[in-house]
């Protein structure tokens, strides 16, 4: 059974006014438990509107969102439970930190869930370790930390609620390459430990390429595709047309194909490209 | 080529005022020597905390040196009498477009700096229109900035700077919060300002592909300039660049990996065109 599903999901902003705009238009999606999904789309494509439906921040104009097979809006009073099951980390989440210590900030969500102190402690320690925050940082004020560390505190705060589905909206925005790799590797480690479903919104194809199982692409309020990474990058030309960037390495192989040298359409990481080219050279006896 | 920016032995520490904590202030800039010629297009790279934004803030006197000197267009940044002249000469664009827009109408926002300078109406009207045309935002002159995309807002911010006719624009990660489309728009605008108006550009960025489009790349690490060369020469030193915690373009990385495996391919490739051509020679 899929963990998260949408059926004909449609959302219209300001219906009946001159500003009426359909941001999500009849989206049908099915996400299985444990998947790691990259979400892409240009600004205004509807991806943020879409993910805000997954934990009930927005209520569809029409259509359904099913969590573990149940319509999340079936009983409006249960929507709080949905928000515990589906955790959403917004863009620049470090601006939402407010507690006196790192520990208290991470513990805020679990506390609101009404968990006991021992359980809260276990979760804070576990997620802090997952996200790479050393234990001695826990008693420090989060405001003394670096930008990258603050962001990890904010992410840990949502992870500590142990949501079945974790959604991160551009978790690497504004970070340098080292900070970016660090956050992504910690998210990956968390995924491996918990086997929870994760959705990551990113503009960086290069980030997502080596990372996700499937990529969901939104374009003009519609679902452009939700498919395996290699199949999505196989449509590199179309992705460029709808305003997305494909990894530079994919562009190199697109150019080669135009020159009549075809290595297939599925090259999207440097490692894969290297292996592919070296194998070819060996086969030709030139290495 | 005349030097527009001259930085000599620049040191800077935050909290250098006595705060009674007895802690030794940490030096963020530890002796920077850098000159930039009029009309150059320079990228500054460095990981978070390397001091690159601190350096940028010295160029238009938002910060002043603890030691050493910064001269822009012949004006020393510590010369308080000439600070407005200096800021008119060197304009700054920041990362977050929402933090630098002040008006509720695009053209008023662009006029803001000019109004402060006391530019006469006729002249102001002309400069605002010209600047908006230059960044491709003239059709949006009567829109509210809130209706614009991030890339469009950044272009409005750039228009506000060029209306003041600066000789130099410093951009501190202007594309960090933008999507690929917005990034392309802003990069195209910056390049055009450099090419057509001869404005000196200092672009601080995390994006290696943006740096690869510049003429010169300055790499900072731990408060010092550690590399200063053409993008080709900088990225050719893949090991060194990675050691500093930065990336190289994927095309460069692929060629470097292939060279290490014994393939005869140039070591100074930075664009996808060059990479595809080099691979064509081998596999074609």
Give the name of the CATH architecture of the largest domain in chain A: 3-Layer(aba) Sandwich
List segments of chain B where confidence is low: pLDDT < 50 over at least 5 consecutive residues.
none
What's the pLDDT, averaged over the residues of chain B? Answer: 91
Q: How many distinct helices of chain A?
A: 11
Chain-averaged pLDDT of chain A: 92
Shape of chain B: globular
Number of helices of chain B: 11
Q: Give the structural class of chain A.
A: alpha/beta
How far apart are the first and last residues' alpha carbons of chain A, in Å? 49 Å
- Radius of gyration of chain A, in Å, reads 21 Å
CATH class of the largest domain in chain A: Alpha Beta
What is the strand content of chain A? Answer: 15-25%
Give the uncertain stretches of chain A in residue-range form.
Answer: none
Radius of gyration of chain B (CA) equals 20 Å
The H/E string of chain A reads EEEHEEHEHHHEHEHEEHHHH
First-residue to last-residue Cα separation of chain B: 43 Å
User: What is the fold named in CATH at topology level of the largest domain in chain A?
Assistant: Rossmann fold
- Please indicate the count of domains of chain A: 2
Helical fraction of chain B: 25-40%
Largest sheet of chain B: 6 strands, mixed
User: Which chains have the largest interface?
Assistant: A-B, 37 and 41 residues
Task: Describe the overall structure.
The complex is a heterodimer of chains A (287) and B (284). Chain A has 287 residues and is of the alpha/beta class. Helices cover 39% and strands 21% of the residues of chain A. Chain A folds into two domains: 35-56 and 77-229, P-loop containing nucleotide triphosphate hydrolases (Rossmann fold, 3-Layer(aba) Sandwich); 247-287, no CATH class. Chain A has helices spanning 47-54, 79-85, 102-112, 117-130, 147-159, 177-194, 205-209, 229-233, 236-241, 248-258, 270-283; strands at residues 4-13, 21-31, 36-40, 62-67, 70-71, 86-89, 165-169, 197-201, 214-219, 222-228. In chain A, helix 3 crosses helix 4. Chain A starts with a strand and ends with a helix. The mean pLDDT of chain A is 92. In chain B, the strands form two sheets. Chain B has a six-stranded mixed sheet, with helices on both faces. A four-stranded antiparallel sheet of chain B has the order 2-1-4-5, with helices on one face. The mean pLDDT of chain B is 91. The chains are: A alpha/beta (287), B alpha/beta (284). At the A-B interface, helix 6, helix 10 and helix 11 of A face helix 6, helix 10 and helix 11 of B.
């Amino acid at each position: 059974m899929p963990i998260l599903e949408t059926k004909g999901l449609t959302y219209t902003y300001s219906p009946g006014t001159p500003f009426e705009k359909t941001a999500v238009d009849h989206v049908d999606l099915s996400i299985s438990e444990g998947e790691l999904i990259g979400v892409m789309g240009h600004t205004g494509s509807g991806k943020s509107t879409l993910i805000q439906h997954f934990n009930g921040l927005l209520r569809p104009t029409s259509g359904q969102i099913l969590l573990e097979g149940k319509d999340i809006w079936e009983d409006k009073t249960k929507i709080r439970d949905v928000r515990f099951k589906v955790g959403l980390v917004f863009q620049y989440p470090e601006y939402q930190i407010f507690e006196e210590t790192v520990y208290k900030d991470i513990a805020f969500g679990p506390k609101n869930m009404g968990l006991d102190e021992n359980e809260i402690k276990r979760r804070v320690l576990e997620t802090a370790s997952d996200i790479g925050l050393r234990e001695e940082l826990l008693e420090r004020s989060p405001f003394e930390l670096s930008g990258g560390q603050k962001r990890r505190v904010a992410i840990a705060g949502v992870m500590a609620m142990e949501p079945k589905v974790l959604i991160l909206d551009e978790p690497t925005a504004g970070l340098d390459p080292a900070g970016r790799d660090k956050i992504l590797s910690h998210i990956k480690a968390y995924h491996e430990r918990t086997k929870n479903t994760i959705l990551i919104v990113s503009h960086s194809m290069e980030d997502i390429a080596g990372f996700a199982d499937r990529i969901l692409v939104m374009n003009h309020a519609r679902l452009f595709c939700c498919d395996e990474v290699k199949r999505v990058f196989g449509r590199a030309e179309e992705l460029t047309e709808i305003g997305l960037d494909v990894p530079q390495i994919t562009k190199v192989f697109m150019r080669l194909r135009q020159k009549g040298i075809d290595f297939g359409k599925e090259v999207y990481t440097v490692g894969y490209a290297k292996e592919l080219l070296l194998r070819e050279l060996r086969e030709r006896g030139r290495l | 080529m005349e030097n527009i920016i001259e930085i000599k032995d620049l040191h800077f520490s935050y909290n250098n005022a006595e705060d009674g904590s007895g802690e030794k202030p940490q030096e963020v800039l530890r002796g920077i020597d850098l000159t930039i010629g009029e009309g150059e297009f320079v990228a500054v790279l460095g990981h978070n905390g390397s001091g690159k934004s601190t350096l940028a803030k010295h160029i238009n006197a938002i910060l002043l040196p603890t030691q050493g000197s910064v001269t822009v267009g012949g004006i020393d940044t510590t010369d308080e009498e000439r600070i407005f002249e200096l800021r008119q000469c060197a304009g700054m664009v920041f990362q977050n477009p929402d933090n630098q827009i002040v008006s509720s109408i695009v053209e008023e926002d662009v006029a803001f700096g000019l109004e402060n300078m006391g530019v006469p109406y006729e002249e102001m009207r002309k400069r605002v229109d010209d600047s908006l045309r230059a960044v491709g935002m003239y059709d949006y002159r009567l829109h509210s900035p809130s209706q614009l995309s991030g890339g469009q807002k950044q272009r409005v911010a750039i228009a506000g700077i060029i209306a003041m006719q600066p000789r130099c624009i410093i951009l501190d990660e202007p594309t960090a919060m933008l999507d690929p489309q917005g990034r392309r728009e802003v990069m195209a605008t910056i390049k055009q300002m450099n090419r057509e108006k001869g404005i000196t550009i200092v672009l601080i960025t995390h994006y290696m592909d943006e740096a690869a489009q510049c003429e010169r790349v300055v790499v900072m690490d731990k408060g010092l300039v550690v590399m200063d060369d053409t993008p080709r020469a900088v990225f050719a030193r893949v090991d060194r660049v990675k050691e500093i915690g930065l990336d190289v373009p994927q095309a460069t990385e692929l060629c470097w990996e292939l060279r290490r495996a014994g393939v005869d391919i140039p070591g100074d490739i930075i664009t996808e065109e060059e990479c595809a051509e080099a691979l064509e020679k081998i596999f074609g």
